Amino acid sequence: MKKNLLTLLTLTIAITASAQSYYEVKHVDPTINTTGSESGAVVVDDSVLLYSSMAEESSSRIYMIDFNPLLTQVFQAPIAADGTLGEGVLNQWGFNGKGSNTANVAFDPKNNIMYFTRAAQGNTSHIYYSKRTGRRWGKAQPLGGDVNQKGYTSTHPSVGYLDDGKTILYFSSDRPGGLGGMDIWYTILIKEGVPGNCTNLGAPVNSDSNDVTPFYCNEEGRLYFSSTRTGGLGGFDIYASDGQRNSWELPRHLGKDINSPHNDLYFTMQPCRCRCVQDSGEVVEACGFLASNRNGSLYTTESNCCNDLFRWRRLRKRDSSTPTPRPMPRESRAADLLPLSLYFHNDEPNPHTFDTTTESTYTQTWQVYVQLREEYKASQPSYTDPKRRDSVQWAMEFFFDSELGNCRGHLQQLMQLLYQDLRAGHKVRITLNGYASPLFESEYNVNLSKRRVACVKNEMKAWNDNALLPYLNNGSLKLEMASWGAAGTDEVAASDPLRNPKRRESVYSLDAAMDRRVDIIGYEIVTESE
Known about the structure:
Blueprint lengths: L4 H13 L3 E7 L10 E7 L3 E6 L19 E6 L10 E2 L9 E9 L4 E8 L5 E8 L2 E2 L3 E2 L11 E8 L5 E7 L9 E9 L2 E2 L3 E2 L10 E7 L4 E6 L9 E8 L2 E2 L3 E2 L10 E6 L12 E11 L15 E10 L12 H6 L4 E4 L18 H8 L3 H6 L7 H38 L3 E10 L5 H25 L2 H5 L3 E10 L16 H6 L1 H6 L1 E10 L4
Parallel strand pairs: 25-26
Antiparallel strand pairs: 1-23, 2-3, 3-4, 4-5, 6-7, 7-8, 8-9, 8-10, 11-12, 12-13, 13-14, 13-15, 16-17, 17-18, 18-19, 18-20, 21-22, 22-23, 24-27, 25-27
């Protein structure tokens, strides 16, 4: 059914109203924090907290022995069974380099590898790693490949795992090829210490501001990071984006519960100890650490000078009046993403042709489309009524942020669930419809709609290094087209010169933009009898 501005407004209200969780943030006590700077807290083996500190003095107010206060080094603290933290001491596992700043640890529990950064004074940071064998950590070595580049910073490593079991390393860098300032990049580990090519995450995660301290949560399929982009509360703020590798939804600001007017960085998640601390009437959904120089952080002479560690919890009110819902079957979770609309710029892909197929993937067309926001906004009618003018601009912003901004990420979620179903031995049938705005003649629109459907099929074939292709080849996955052609709604006659003499409105209007799409309308688990 055709969506209009009222639908978009209603969707905005629904999204806001559904946010029932909230964050609680508490300062970590002085057994860990000092008047120096602490950051990058990571839990190892559910029993040790590793973090970085430019400590000036210990909690007993005695200066650290043989410790240069100008250096940042890795410290550790024990975690008790109830989640409380013991006193932090200098780490002795071999990560700290003599005369070098060492920080930003990231643990890969699957492969028993620790990643961290080192930088000699005055030099840029590079990423190192150490392998654990038994209880001993091996000699720290710089990561190979082109992760570390001379003259450029590589820092803030974070480990994730792809669906095929490969290890992916996210990190921050100011190397050439980014969108501006520090950007978030990734590389897939070929083997221990040997990464593949480094790839910029691109928009919408990266911006022309600084985007740093990535933390990928595999359980949620979500990347947390900090950014100085516009729209925050001040300094660095924490954002989250669902996705994986190079397919991401529009990042969302985590709000005033967890962000402050100061710098908020190094968001990490502690998945196990949260179960030990639950309040009456509240459920702890997740917990972890962050670093901030917000009010309450310790200092000697200048307030808000230095980062301290803070603990966060994400809480949800327990509703005792309704039973806890049972987990939905996997196929129902995939079907819940439908109908899923995937949008295209005018006459894309393969413009000015009668082709019925294409070699383009949806990601390729989407990445071009999202860069046209300002062009679309500038092409809207200049209404004299400021309220009407503002509402049109707002609706176009919402389309690019929500409808277009999120559709590729939702497609990635669908394919991840689809892949799980196929690996479990299910046969799946997916039904698609292809549409075009009524700017061209019927025959042209039919062909254009067919190649848009082909573009989506190409995305599925190429997803996760062709992980779905074997299932398409053996018939376990079937993609069926139900219809194609112009959207054919009564609300839009975008090419009608009597109703819309300006062709640019036929291309750039919100109605036309929402007509140009492929709808995934069906997701069925197919039984043997079918």
